[in-house]
From TrEMBL:
The record marks 374 as: Transition state stabilizer. It catalyses: 2 a phenolic donor + H2O2 = 2 a phenolic radical donor + 2 H2O. Disulfide bonds join 347-426, 380-385, 432-633, 510-541. Keywords: Calcium, Disulfide bond, Glycoprotein, Heme, Hydrogen peroxide, Iron, Membrane, Metal-binding, Oxidoreductase, Peroxidase, Secreted, Signal, Transmembrane, Transmembrane helix. GO terms for biological process: hydrogen peroxide catabolic process; response to oxidative stress. The chain crosses the membrane at residues 318-336. Its EC number is 1.11.1.7. PROSITE patterns: PEROXIDASE_2, PEROXIDASE_4. Belongs to the peroxidase family. This is peroxidase.
């Protein structure tokens, strides 16, 4: 059996679920030359600078060990937002230009298709092979992350002991053997600055470090200077002094000879936990190649963003999706607590489970989008997005479901269905509040609306009181409704966005608007309503003398009632708004221009609606140890 075959078999045996998510040949149809394009760029760069292998290995490690392999390290800071590049440990990371070059070529060949996260993994794989290291296969299909926070950058330090460093590796699912493999293999090509090890030198400590070869101490003293006269510009030295640009096992032989430069490297050869592993690799280079390939495949799958999560950036240095930029700027504190991919470890398939349930229900009943939007709004606008609306009343206790505005809310069965499956997959892990937000997001996308990312981590509330339910009435004026929205932190633009977007797929009962009809107002047509619409609604709703039985419903968007689009805004500009409040949005001086803009530009509506929905889903959320995770969404634990 050759080494490449062994590497792939090991991968299937050790972590098949990860490989089941990522896929070999993911771009074979969407971008057939993707891997060849990356390989060509890396080959061209390697021909002029063989040190790129170390640079890419370091970039890959620093990216994957923070939020996972999501290319969050590539994002540039801006005037208003810091990024992982600002963290001290990342300020000497290089190789970004290689990723940029590959991305540019890929965008020309297959626009908005290949993720920056995949480019890092592929480029690193190719650079390792070019340096004489193992050739291994990398599953692809990663998506690019939407968060880059320097405060999250916590990496193993070169001054650590084996035991201290192992805490970082085991937290990400690695064994001690894999840590020795990755550190030693990576450092067979790397370099380091004097500032990372000069505390070990006799010229800085006044005595020889007993774990360092005296000849090497003297060599390094010449490069780094002394405590009294340190070298200027913080020089760098190769970690492997024999074959610094070749991937081989010489590094392991060096540290056995007490010629490890970094404290952690030398401790790998001295600590009883790891010394025998170092000796094994020093004696068997083939074993190192196989083990390094397996460990690199595993590292490239840490907390990857998949499916519809994240995005495919057009520029690896900047987030493409406008909604995330706006979101960070408008309410960064909420975003800092809620988190994209919150269940990435505790319940990796959580979002997929919710999405499957919503898809199944949508296939049978496309009106669920309106139902879930209404449920989400009615829940978040009372105590915050805490799933308090889901609680059933009992003989001894009423709940928000008893409040008049909530008696026609529906869609509870969808939440129950999702919760039941999630409890089997990940008991007491995913909150009902998160299920509402995720299900609404998925239903909006299925109806043709914007796809947007929902941070998760909400907890379920412990109170459900019908007396607290005070929601904007459909009979309000724009200024009156704005008081309710303003109290929750929303602007007039966000109100126009949420109401119009939501009502593009909604329905209303005759009782909500019949006072506008000529048959209920003494025969005179409401001057703000198109007479033809009045006649049509009279047929449905009856008259004050003979109202229709069982309070019929009518679509608020008369043209495309099941599709999320901007037709609703065109309707209300033509005086075909059914609810008084909807019509007033098109007539009030404060909101009329916004309605006109959305009526002519559906893309602007999509961007603004996504922003507003993310903001709505973060209203007064319960976090961390607050509230609870209900086992049954209809009852407190």
């Amino acid at each position: 059996m050759n080494s490449t075959t062994l590497i792939i078999i090991t991968l299937f045996c050790v972590f098949p679920l990860v490989l089941g998510e990522l896929r070999l040949g993911f771009y074979s149809l969407s971008c057939p030359r993707a891997e060849a394009i990356v390989r060509d760029v890396v080959q061209r760069r390697f021909n002029t600078d063989k040190s790129i292998t170390a640079a890419l290995l370091r970039m890959h490690f620093h990216d994957c060990f923070v939020r996972g392999c999501d290319a969050s390290l590539l994002l540039d800071p801006t005037e208003n937002r810091t990024s992982e590049k600002d963290a001290g440990l990342n300020q000497s990371v290089r190789g970004f230009d290689i990723i940029d070059e590959a991305k540019s070529a890929l965008e020309q060949a297959c626009p908005s298709t290949v993720s920056c996260a995949d480019i890092i993994s592929l480029a690193t794989r190719d650079a390792v092979a070019l340096a004489g290291g193992p050739s291994y296969n990398v599953g692809t299909g990663r998506r690019d992350g939407l968060v880059s926070d320097p405060r999250e950058v916590k990496l193993p330090l070169p001054s650590m002991s084996v035991f201290e460093a192992l805490h970082f590796f085991t937290a990400r699912g690695f064994t001690l053997f894999e840590m020795v493999t990755l550190v030693g293999g990576g450092h067979s090509l790397g370099s380091t600055h004097c500032s990372n090890f000069r505390s070990r030198l006799s010229s800085f400590r006044g005595s020889l470090d007993p774990t360092m070869d005296p000849n090497m101490d003297a060599e390094l003293g010449k490069v780094c200077g002394s405590a009294k006269q340190p070298a200027t510009s913080d020089p760098s030295v190769y970690l492997d002094q024999i074959t610094p640009l070749a991937f081989d096992n010489r590094f392991f032989n060096q540290i056995l000879a007490k010629r490890g430069i970094l404290n952690l490297d030398q401790q790998l050869a001295l600590d009883p936990l790891s010394s025998h592993m170092v000796s094994g690799f020093a004696a068997d280079g083939e074993s190192l190649l196989q083990s390094f390939a397996s460990a690199m495949i595993k590292m490239s799958s840490i907390n990857v963003t998949l499916g519809n999560e994240g995005e495919i950036r057009r520029n690896c240095r900047a987030i493409t999706i406008l909604i995330i930029i706006t979101f960070c700027c408008v309410f960064p504190l909420v975003f800092a607590n809620l988190r994209l991919g919150f269940y990435g470890v505790s319940c990796p398939k959580a979002e997929a489970i919710v999405r499957d349930v919503v898809q199944r229900h949508f296939n049978k009943d496309r009106s669920i989008t309106a139902a879930l939007l209404r449920m989400h709004f009615h829940d978040c606008f009372v105590r915050g997005c805490d799933a308090s609306l889901l609680i059933d009343p009992t003989r001894n206790r009423s709940s928000e479901k008893d409040a008049v505005p909530n008696r026609t809310v529906r869609g509870y069965d969808i939440i129950d269905d999702a919760k039941s499956i999630l409890e089997r997959a990940c008991p007491e892990t995913v909150s009902c509040a998160d299920i509402i937000s995720l299900a609404t997001r998925d239903a909006v996308a299925l109806a043709g609306g914007p796809s947007y990312n929902v941070p998760t981590g909400r907890r379920d509330g412990l109170v459900s009181n019908p007396r607290e339910v005070r929601l904007p009435s459909p009979t309000l004026s724009v200024s009156e409704a704005m008081q309710s929205f303003g109290a929750k932190g929303f602007s007039l633009m966000e109100m126009v966005t949420l109401v119009g977007g939501g009502h593009s797929v909604g329905v209303a009962h005759c009782s909500m608007f019949r006072e506008r009809l000529s048959s209920f107002r003494g025969g005179s047509v409401d001057p703000t309503m198109d007479p033809n619409l009045d006649a049509r609604l009279v047929e449905l709703c009856g008259s004050s003398n003979r109202p229709a039985t069982n309070d019929p419903t009518v679509f608020l968007d008369l043209n495309t009632p099941f599709a999320f689009d901007n037709r609703f805004y065109n309707q209300i500009l033509e005086r075909r708004g059914i609810l008084h409040f909807d019509q007033q949005l098109a007539m009030d001086e404060s909101s009329r221009d916004m309605v006109s803009r959305f009526a002519t530009d559906g893309d602007i509506l999509f961007q603004n609606f996504a922003n507003a929905m993310i903001k709505l889903s973060a209203v007064n959320v319960w976090l961390d140890n607050e509230g609870e995770i209900r086992r049954n969404c209809r009852a407190f634990n």
